[in-house]
Design a protein that fits this description.
The complex is a heterodimer of chains A (about 350) and B (about 130).
Chain A (H helix, E strand, L loop, with lengths): L1 H13 L5 E12 L2 E6 L7 E6 L2 E8 L3 E7 L10 E8 L1 E4 L7 E2 L16 E4 L22 H6 L7 E3 L8 H18 L9 E8 L3 H13 L6 E6 L5 H20 L3 E7 L1 H14 L13 H9 L19 E6 L10
Parallel strand pairs in A: 8-12, 10-14, 11-12, 11-13, 13-14
Antiparallel strand pairs in A: 1-2, 1-6, 2-5, 3-4, 3-6, 4-5, 7-9
Helix pairs in contact in A: 5-6
Chain B lengths: L4 H13 L1 E2 L2 E2 L1 H14 L4 H18 L1 E6 L5 H15 L4 E6 L7 E5 L2 E4 L2 H11 L1
Parallel strand pairs in B: 3-4
Antiparallel strand pairs in B: 1-2, 3-5, 5-6
Helix pairs in contact in B: 1-3
Chain lengths: ~350, ~130
C-alpha cells in the first residue's frame, strides 16, 4: 500500500502544470449582425470567434486597429464592451450520412425538431477546390428525369449546370424534380452491384419559409427525403448565414466526394447569396462596385462552384473503384458578372 | 462622431510623430494636442478623436494586469515585469492586484493576451470540457 502512495505522489510531482493562453478582444460596435472588435491581435482570417453564450462569429475583416466580425447567431445579446475570444479554429460543419433526411442550418444544427445529428466528421466550410491533377473528366450521366433536359442538355456527374430564368418559370421545380428522380433511381437499383446512388443536398438561400417547407413536403411525399440533406438559410436568417449556407452545403457534398460517393447539390439560389454577401460587405465598409456589389462577388461563386468536381480514385479516401463526383446548379446569375 | 478619412490619416500621422523609438512619448502628445487646438486646422476635432482612439489602443496594448490569489512579493513582481518586457517590448505598464477568487495561481492580462494559470481558471476549463 505504501508503494502505491509513493507512486501516486511521484506521478503528481511529475505533472507539468501548463498555463493556458487566450487572445481576447472587446466589442467596440455592433450593428446589423457585424461586430467591430478591438484587440484580438492574433485573429486570423475566417477564424471562429467566441462571443460567449454559444454565439460565434467569423473574422472577415482584419484592419489595423480592429477586427470586423460577422456574427453567426443571435447578435442582439452582444453589447459594446463584451469580451470576444479566439478559438484557433476555422468554421466547420458536421458531415456524413447522419445528415440525410434532416433539415439543418448553415452551422449544421438541426432545425427540424427530430433530435441531434450523429456526424461522421467535421469539414471546414471554406476549403480550397481540388486541383487539376486530382480531377477526372465527366463521363457518367446524371438523369434529371425531364426528357427535354436529358435529351438536349445531358448532364453528367461532376458537371455544373445553371438554371436561369425569370421568377415563377419553374427553376426550383426542375431542381426538385431532379432530386426526386435521383431518389427514384436509387430505390430502383438498390442492392445492385456497381450501382452508385446519388445523394442530394438542397441549399435554400433567402427563400420564404413556406417555399422551403413546400420543397421539403414534396421531397417527403416522393420518398426522396431519405437521400437528401436540406440546408436552410431562409429570408429570416441573418445575412451572414445566407452568405455561408452554400459553403456549408458544399462541405457536406465534399464528404460524399471524398468517400467514393456521388452527390447532387442544388443552390437555390446564388443571386440571393450574392445579395447577402453584398449586405455583409457594405456593413464591413469594403469597397463596392457595380450595383453596390463588392468586387469579389464573382470570386464568391467561383470558389464555391469549383469545389464540386469529379475526382480520380487517388483523390478519394475510399477505396471503392468508381470516381466520386458531385454536381451543383444555380438558379440565377449575379449581374456583376455580366460584361457590358 | 464619424471621423473622415483625412482626419483618420492625420490622426495616425500625428500618433506616429509622437512615438519615440516605438514608444509613445507623453510630453510630445500633450504638445501636439495643444498645437492642434491652438491652430484649429480643418477637421481637427476628428483628427484629435482618432488620435485619442489610437492612444487608448496603444495604452491598452502596453498595459498588463496581474492578478494573484495572494500578495505578490517584490521578487515575483520584478520577474513578471522582466518577462513581460521581454515578450511585449519596453514601456509596459504593469499593475498588480490581489484576487482571492482565483483560489491559487496567477492570471495575467497583457494587451489582448490572457495567461491563466489560476486554479479557478483550470476548474472553469474542466467544467467546459465536461
Amino acid at each position: 500500500m505504501s508503494s502505491i502512495l509513493q507512486d501516486i505522489e511521484a506521478q503528481i510531482s511529475g505533472l507539468k502544470t501548463s498555463v493556458s493562453r487566450q487572445n481576447v478582444g472587446t466589442v467596440r460596435e455592433i450593428s446589423d449582425g457585424v461586430a467591430k472588435v478591438e484587440g484580438l491581435t492574433d485573429a486570423m482570417l475566417n477564424e471562429m470567434l467566441d462571443f460567449g453564450n454559444g454565439v460565434i462569429g467569423l473574422a472577415l475583416n482584419l484592419e489595423e486597429t480592429e477586427v470586423g466580425v460577422v456574427v453567426l447567431g443571435d447578435y442582439l445579446q452582444i453589447r459594446e464592451g463584451s469580451e470576444v475570444k479566439t478559438t484557433g479554429k476555422l468554421l466547420s460543419v458536421p458531415v456524413g450520412k447522419g445528415l440525410l433526411g434532416r433539415v439543418v442550418d448553415m452551422l449544421g444544427r438541426p432545425v427540424d425538431g427530430k433530435g441531434p445529428i450523429t456526424a461522421t466528421a467535421q469539414y471546414p466550410v471554406e476549403k480550397i477546390a481540388p486541383g487539376i491533377v486530382k480531377r477526372k473528366s465527366v463521363s457518367q450521366p446524371l438523369q434529371t428525369g425531364i426528357m427535354s433536359v436529358d435529351a438536349m442538355i445531358p448532364i453528367g456527374r461532376g458537371q455544373r449546370e445553371l438554371i436561369i430564368g425569370d421568377r415563377s418559370t419553374g427553376k426550383t421545380t426542375i431542381g426538385v424534380d431532379a432530386m426526386i428522380n435521383q431518389a427514384r433511381i436509387n430505390k430502383q437499383n438498390a442492392g445492385q452491384k456497381d450501382f452508385r446512388p446519388v445523394y442530394n443536398i438542397y441549399v435554400a438561400v433567402g427563400q420564404k419559409q413556406s417555399n422551403i417547407a413546400r420543397v421539403i413536403a414534396e421531397l417527403e411525399k416522393a420518398g426522396a427525403m431519405e437521400y437528401t440533406i436540406v440546408v436552410a438559410a431562409g429570408a429570416d436568417a441573418p445575412a451572414a448565414a445566407q452568405y455561408l449556407a452554400p459553403f456549408s452545403g458544399a462541405a457536406m457534398g465534399e464528404w460524399f466526394m471524398d468517400n467514393g460517393m456521388d452527390a447532387l447539390i442544388i443552390y437555390d439560389d446564388l443571386s440571393k447569396q450574392a445579395v447577402a454577401y453584398r449586405q455583409v460587405s457594405l456593413v464591413l465598409k469594403r469597397p463596392s462596385g457595380r450595383e453596390a456589389y463588392p468586387g469579389d462577388v464573382f470570386y464568391l461563386h467561383s470558389r464555391l462552384l469549383e469545389r464540386s468536381a469529379r475526382v480520380n480514385r487517388r483523390a478519394a479516401t475510399d477505396r471503392s473503384p468508381p470516381c466520386p463526383s458531385s454536381r451543383r446548379r444555380r438558379a440565377t446569375f449575379p449581374p456583376t458578372s455580366r460584361r457590358t | 462622431m464619424k471621423v473622415g478619412k483625412q482626419s483618420r490619416r492625420d490622426g495616425k500621422a500625428l500618433f506616429h510623430a509622437c512615438c519615440v523609438n516605438g514608444v509613445l512619448d507623453e510630453a510630445k502628445v500633450r504638445q501636439a494636442v495643444a498645437a492642434v487646438i491652438a491652430q484649429k486646422p480643418r477637421g481637427y476635432i476628428g483628427t484629435l478623436t482618432h488620435l485619442q482612439r489610437l492612444i487608448k489602443l496603444d495604452l491598452d496594448r502596453r498595459s498588463a494586469r496581474v492578478e494573484n490569489a495572494v500578495e505578490t512579493t517584490s521578487a515575483q513582481m520584478d520577474a513578471i515585469k522582466t518577462a513581460l518586457a521581454a515578450k511585449y517590448g519596453p514601456g509596459m505598464n504593469v499593475t498588480f492586484w490581489v484576487n482571492p477568487a482565483l483560489i491559487g495561481g496567477v492570471k495575467i492580462k497583457a494587451g489582448s493576451d490572457i495567461y491563466d494559470g489560476s486554479v479557478a481558471g483550470r476548474l472553469a476549463a474542466l467544467n467546459d470540457t465536461l
